[in-house]
Amino acid sequence: MTDRLQSVDRLLERREAISDLGDALRLLIEHATATEAPTEELRRAAERIRQAAGPLGERIRERTEVAAADDLLGGVRMYNPVIGRGSALAPPVHVESSNGVAVGTCTLGLAYEGPPMYAHGGVSAMLLDQMLGHAVTSSGKPGMTVQLDTAYRKPVPLMTALRLTAEVSQVEGRRVTAVGAIATAERPDEVLVTATGLFVALRAEQAQRLFGPVMRPRAS
Ligand SMILES: CCCCCCCCCCCC(=O)SCCNC(=O)CCNC(=O)[C@H](O)C(C)(C)COP(=O)(O)OP(=O)(O)OC[C@H]1O[C@@H](n2cnc3c(N)ncnc32)[C@H](O)[C@@H]1OP(=O)(O)O
């Protein structure tokens, strides 16, 4: 096997391990949010979790470093808080996108609760910001969100399969507008939340100023 294939194998193995750890963390968060276990059990669990966290903290990256398992240009972000399979914060949303259109699926657990039984409005906005970002990126003109307007029409139920959609609606020079919505998978035509986002493609000097350290090739 060539070195390159071996390194690809190692990368895929690492991503699989990161996803596995992400799954375990999401299970932990969901159980820790839903638990009515005895108080003593909570104290024991806190101690065991601190023990598990210790070794993970022994080798950590700086803010200016991209995770070794990520591929920025290839769109792999293992710790993104919406789509990252390694992120304890991410549902995670599974997204397919092309030509300015994105479709996502996820189910939100009790950890995302705002009003009882329903998603927090900030979570819905976060999901939609990400979805709009995918639509915009897949249109070939990636940018950063400069404005996000959300309209909450009906509450988003937890523990229910959701369907998220987004599409580019307007391109004006460096400004790209995208619109998106959240519905349940069962009733995709019943809109629960909508969003309109304005994205701005960065000028070269803006990209350098904001992302300079992570744009440099990794030292091997
Ligand atoms: C995994 C793979 C897939 C990838 C999928 C990725 C999904 C990620 C989704 C998450 C996206 C995010 O959350 S991004 C994170 C949140 N966003 C941010 O932190 C952005 C913070 N904002 C900024 O740093 C700055 O605003 C910049 C650098 C974006 C733009 O700089 P600027 O100085 O404001 O704007 P400038 O370049 O001069 O001008 C750009 C044009 O946009 C206009 N403009 C700028 N802001 C606004 C505004 N709020 N409303 C209207 N118009 C605006 C200007 O008037 C100008 O128009 P004209 O003169 O040209 O006509």
TrEMBL record:
Residues 119-178 form the Thioesterase domain. It is a peripheral membrane protein. It is found in: Cell projection, Ruffle membrane; Cytoplasm; Membrane. It holds the Pfam family 4HBT. It is an enzyme of class 3 (hydrolase). It catalyses: (9Z)-octadecenoyl-CoA + H2O = (9Z)-octadecenoate + CoA + H(+); dodecanoyl-CoA + H2O = dodecanoate + CoA + H(+); (5Z,8Z,11Z,14Z)-eicosatetraenoyl-CoA + H2O = (5Z,8Z,11Z,14Z)-eicosatetraenoate + CoA + H(+); octanoyl-CoA + H2O = octanoate + CoA + H(+). Its EC number is 3.1.2.2. One of its GO terms (cellular component) is cytoplasm. Its main location: membrane. Transmembrane segments: none annotated. Keywords: Apoptosis, Cell membrane, Cell projection, Cytoplasm, Fatty acid metabolism, Hydrolase, Lipid metabolism, Membrane, Transit peptide. The keyword Transferase does not apply. Belongs to the THEM4/THEM5 thioesterase family. This is Acyl-coenzyme A thioesterase THEM4. It comes from Actinoplanes lutulentus.
